[in-house]
Amino acid sequence: MVVLRSYVSGSWRAPEDEGAPLRDAVTGEEVARISSAGIDMGGALEYGRRTGGPVLRELTFHQRASLLKALASHLREHREELYALSARTGATLADSKFDVDGGIGVLFAYASKGKRELPNDTVLVEGDVEPLGRGGTFVGQHLCTPSHGVAVQINAFNFPVWGPLEKLAPAFLAGVPSLIKPASQTAYLTARLVELIVESGILPEGTVQMICGDPGDLLDHLTEQDIVGFTGSASTARLLRTHPAIVGNAVRFNAEADSLNCSILGPDAAPGTPEFDLYVKQLVQEMTVKAGQKCTAIRRALVPAALIGDVAEAVRERLAKVTVGNPADPEVRMGALAGLDQREEVRRSLKALLDAGGLVFGDPERVEVRGADPERGAFMSPILLRADDASRAEPHEVEAFGPVSTLLPYEGADQAVELAVRGRGSLAGSVVTADAEFARHVVLGTAPWHGRLLVLNSENAEESTGHGSPLPALVHGGPGRAGGGEEMGGIRGVVHHMRRTAVQAGPAMLTAISGRWVPGTDRRVTGEHPFRKHLEDLRVGDTAVGGPRTVTLEDVEHFAEFTGDVFYAHMDEEAARANPFFGGRVAHGYLVVSFAAGLFVDPAPGPVLANYGLENLRFLTPVKPGDELTVTLTAKQITPREGADYGEVRWDTDVTNQEGASVAKYDVLTLVAKRPKQD
Fold this sequence. Notes:
- Residues 548-644 form the MaoC-like domain.
- This protein is of the alpha/beta class.
- Helix content is 33%, strand content 25%.
- The chain has a 7-stranded mixed β-sheet, with helices on both faces.
């Protein structure tokens, strides 16, 4: 029988004992054995810090993003193999795609965000420069740099592919190596995933490690620079959070824990409306996908009291059509739980829930199974409960981590909010309604208790990813019982793995440290216009000065007639004089911007390929006929694009009048060609 190996310190290590058996959730057959006996936990962490960390920190965000994209493409070629192995965890093909394709999709998403939203640099400049003195010679800036530790991920059994990849992606992009600790029940699938990653040779050595089996003294070796990401039960999260090394070293700890998520049906969503049908469909889907073993699954279905009978009947009809059995059978809609122990745990929780309400559908002890033995496999019927007394504690405190949900009646929006928050913190909630006023009341009332809220109706149903689908661009986590943490969230997830430092310095020194031009730093004005320089020849601080140009009343009137912008401040002297801000006719702001472009643009063909936008535009001082405009354009940030023959340049633009006062400030964004390659 196969004994799962760990991948640590640059090699595959077999355990020193025979390990414990891991069984097929469908057949009960032994799939593999697992143990971490003999693994040097401290050595693995130190290897990640000393080998993986330095090489990652040498790479820019764009280079790391390119590696993530290459890894995602490689894993996509092996999806069929991962699907087949996933079926042994009890997952249907649809469940497996949710896990496997979802994880690969996270890699692609972070690769894209890394290229589009992060600089081609090893440091991330965060926020604006803060003036710290009156004279402009003392300023501050927040910089984010990679943690010099290891991102230790302790994962749950329900998503053995998506779980590791959604933690790996932001950590890797941040420049931090990962150590993966999969849950034992489904570790054989994660182990194959890591084998594919290692065999590809795409990621630098030391940036990904894996420990199969008990973590032993792993946490004892954590340092101040390490980061722990946990997914699992709320009770385990509490234990880990109080580990002496985590507390003593102030280790950054993120928990995403199971929670009693709810879905609320609006009073407007009566039978026959699209929203009623959407609610019923979504509830059944959340009960049966992954056999209800999702941390985001709907555990509490809040329904207007007047509609609870209709909802119960509609859900019962749909559940009756769900075929439970061997995932290899294409007719099967719901597979097995991860194991027999998990099924018994669900049954124990069900006993408490049944005390608070009656069965609407299902049998906790028996289920008709297609293509498998219901005793050897961890099969269970979908269970829908109804608790007419919504004030009972059990539905708001007890979670059966399987295909189980409870219908709860409410009267009015205020009670819906009150019942929702009794879960004491949830990963996800949903409101199904076409009533915008009801949606606003419920969302604002429940938001402090939820990490994510979906408002679902006929407007967005076609494109909605559903109640239980975390997305890379949005945070995945929740307060209170849900763990108090946040995963993914786009670039937020990257910054979580970095250290934010406030750097105080003079403008020139801060420019040198951050790689971004800071106002107050000397500008370089040479005989060659910066627009004549290729990307490699440009330097932060390169400057062009244009002007002056006098703005005439004829200019203002022509621009007004040409564009149709005849706002009174430009065309009516008496009305403009009555405005205390203007005190007379003024030039259009966009006329000022247009004149500025005419002053700084070099007209001949050259390395500048395109102007693709303006950012942070502010009009600061009114421009009156007779004013003279001068523009100063300074290269603020230079970002080469990996694998492309051009890059992006951000130009600080300051338009001033004859008195030196700034009338407009903004950033101009251009695409600039690199030097042509020599044949």
